[in-house]
Structure formats: C-alpha cells, structure tokens
Amino acid sequence: MRERWLKIAEASKPQLYRRVTLPLRAVEGASRPDPRQNWEMLDKGPARTVCDRTWRGGESFILDFGVHTVGYIEFDLLSEGIADAPVRLHLVFGEIAAEVCEAFDPYSGQMSRAWLQDEIVTVDVLPHRVALPRRYAFRYLKITVASDSAAFSVRFGDFLCHSVSSANPASVEPLPAGVPEDLRAMDEVSLRTLANCMHTVFEDGPKRDRRLWIDLAICAPVNHTTFRQFDLTKRCLYLFAATSSQEGIVPACVFEVPQPHAGNDFILDYTAHFAVTLLEYAETSGDWQTANDLWPLAWRQLEMLQSHLDERGLFADPGNWWIFVDWEPRLHKETAMQGVILRGLQAAVTLAEKLHDPDRAASLKPIIETMKKAAREFLFCREKQVFVSGPDRQISWASEVWMVLGRVVEGKQAAQLLRTVMAMPDAIKPVNPGLYHLTLEALWMCGLEKEGIELLRSYWGGMIARGATTFWEIHDPERPLLSPYGNHLVNSYCHTWGCSPAWFIRDLVRRDYWKGKSPHKLEGSFEGSHEINTRKSS
Fold first, then answer.
1. 169-537 has which fold?
2. Which of 34, 160, 331, 470 could join 494 via S-S bond, C-beta 3.0 to 4.6 A?
3. Is the preceding omega at residue 358 within 30 degrees of 0, hence cis?
4. DSSP strand E in 82-150: where?
5. In this structure, what are the phi and psi dihedrals at residue 128, rounded to the nearest 5 degrees?
6. In the chain, what are the domain boundaries?
7. What CATH code would you report for 18-165?
8. How far is CA 213 from CA 202, 372, 400, 448, in A?
9. Tens digit of each residue's pLDDT (9 = 90 or more) over 409-443
10. pTM of whole model > 0.90?
C-alpha cells in the first residue's frame, strides 16, 4: 500500500509557476516603538539608486521588494577599478523589517540558528552574475560589503527574484463589487500567504518548517475556494498515508527529500484532522475514489483516539503525546481535545455513510452521544455558563470553540457560549491564527457573521496594521514579540494557517452578505491597507 500511495502522491505533484519580481525601493530602518516590531522602514528612493553608486567595505543597503516574496535571487556584481582581491558579501533576507535591522547573533532561540536567512557570498572574479541556489522567503534584502580593497570598489546591478509557487493566480475569481475595501486588502494578503506556501506540498512556512504539516485542514479549504489546486491536497493526503507509522498513525509532518519520510513528531490532536481534511477534500473536489482509498487510514486515527477516553466518555491525557491546540503555554487542553475528537468522529460518520460503510457509521454514533453528554455533565460550569478545563477549571476560547465545533452545544446556546467567553477579559485567548481560524468557523456555525467580521478586522487586520503583507505564524496583539521558540526573529511571518480570511470573505460573497450594503469601509475597519494598494500602482 505504501508503495502505491507514494506513486499516487508523485503523480499528483503540481507544476511550479515562475515569475520575475523586482525590488521597488531602497529603505533604511529606524527604531520605533511597537506596533511594527519596533522598526519603521524609511524610503531612500527607487531601488535603482543602489546601482547608481559604488560601495566599499563596511557599507550596506536594504532593498524592499514591496511585499513578501518566495524565490531565487540574482544580481550583477561589478568592479570600479582593478579587482585585485575577492569580494565578500554578507546577505540577510527578512520577512519583516526586524530581521534585517536586528543582529542575529548572539542567537538565543530554541530552533536551529540555520533557519535565520543570512549568507556569506565570496566572488573571485568580476564582473559576475551572482545567482544564489537556495530559495528564500523575504520582503527585505540587506547586503553588506564585508571585504575591502584600496584598489577598487564594487557596483551592483539588475536585481531580481525568480518567484515560485504551485498556485496559479489566473484560477482565482476576483471579488465582486460590494466587498469593503479593507476586506479586499485582507483577501489579497490571504491569497499571497497561501500562494507563497504552495509548492510541491503545502509548506508550513517558506522560511521555516519548509515541509508538510497536517494542519493543512485549515489551508486546504482556502485553496479549494481560491486557487482550486486539488492535486496538491491529494498529494499531501497520500504523503501522510505513505509515511504513517507501523501502527497506522499519520505523522504530524512529512519531508519530501531525499525520499518522502515522516518527521519525529506525532501530535495527538492533529491525527483527528486527517478525517476532517479527507472529507472536505472529497466533498469539494468530487474525488471520492481517494476518500475510499484512504478511508481505512482515517478510521485508524479515530480508533486510536477512542482509546484515550475514560469510562465516562471524557478525554484523558495519556501523558506521552504532544497535544498542540495552540501555542499559548498557559492553556489547559483537555476540554478542547474533547471537541477535537468529537469533530473527527463526526467527520468519520459522514465519510462512512458516503462510502457505504454503515456498520462503522452506526458504531460511532453512540460513542459521540456519550462524549457529548459527558462534556455537558462534567465540563460545563453552570455558574459562569461556560465550559472549563483542567484542575483549576480554566476558561479559554479554545475550550468553548471546540465545544461548538464538536457540536456539544448548537444553535442559540452555542452562540451565547461564544459571546460569553469572548466578553470575559480573563479568558485565555488564542495566540496563533490557526485557533483564530477555528474561532471563525465556530462563529459561522452559530450565525455570528458580524462578530466574525469584527474578529477578521481586529486580528488579521491588526497584522496588516503592523506592516504584514503575508499573515504570520503567531500574533498576540498584547505581546507583539511573542515567540514559542525564544526569539521572534525565527518566527515564520508567512504561514499556511494564516490564510483563512480568503475563505470566510468568499463564503460571505457566496451568500450575498453585502448585497445592497455600502461598498465603503465599515466602522471598525483596520488601517494600513495602503501598503498593498500602492504596490499595484508601483
């Protein structure tokens, strides 16, 4: 089976689209208090001004490509005078301004220092066309002339980036009239985020974690609504299947080279996402053959998850698994896991019914009802009218969102639950866009689209107000430099789970949400969209 699955994955590998991207401006960093990670980029003129002068040892410049870009850099390096020694350059690539304005060393992060994007390039003979073989993810490029010779100075010319993605922009239908301008800008940033993560798999981030992770449950539906690159999702599903463990458990992440193989991580809540993703893919693509082929593997994930329920039907942490849910370190995750498993089981019921497996569908229904009943009986705080988690009965958005997504509560009760927790100042909030995406899903399920739009504007709009041209791996408005890795410079600032707004905005379009409403900005819209809009005129 593994060999056959690998062949199907290879046959589904998408082509890469290439285009040339040019730098727009020369800029200089100026230290400023937040909101833009403590840096503001000052305009120093068109990018060509860098090429209009010569450069000597110790001098540096920064080029701004206008928006986040993923690809391969080339430029000319020439001499003025007789080049009697090699030229050594220090190149630094930054997704955000802080990466080219702050020193990488001494490095104190928990992730490998090698993820930080800097290179030393030595050129022996001038003139020379410098073409870096490694792919970079960046908006800013800083170059320092690291060597010096009294006999000559250097000149630069013809900078360009060969940008790559398996997303075809021509396949995306434009938003119709009536969508507010700030949400149009947000949609554009969402599409860029997703496209820059779409290669031969959905990469978690094109700067860091350049591999497939199983949280494609979030980005795959956005792809299906926009770029419609169904083969990419199919490839990813088969790669997870082909690299599953001997016990049949899908890994959290997969490497493609030198041949597809699983990473070291197996994340308990991520295993439940496999059935959810498989169902959504089959329903939107119509490819029920793949669903049928991978159905036994999806069943195996839910079978394993059921083994972690106690006699009451509540999730019991086995203690030997990574449970993710969110990067918030204070979060108690037991109640959220109850909803995660419920959502997976309910997706499995639908898959079983669609794939004519009535016995398995019937076997899951009483388990689902037992789990729901247990959640309402043991996890609900009647005094505060919310679900709680952990020994100190913690209240969090994660718990309430997953109780809604797991359909423990529905309709008006679910809507009131979400309104209640979101109004609690001490409730633990999410810190990554993935859990905010799930919050939007829960709001949508309850008919709270207005509250969902407000969340789009405050959270994703908040990133744009901080200078984002792609959405980030982690964003806490109250802790703007927060990093789960001990260093904000190694955070990913283009991350697949940040692309959500495009799906929700387009779902509102499908339902004529703005029909008859003013196309102008609505009250509470974010500022900062001009950066994206002026990019077009440039």
1. Glycosyltransferase (1.50.10)
2. 470
3. no
4. 87-94, 118-123, 128-131, 136-145
5. -150, 140
6. 18-165, 169-537
7. 2.60.120.260
8. 8, 29, 25, 30
9. 999 999 999 999 999 999 999 999 999 999 999 99
10. yes
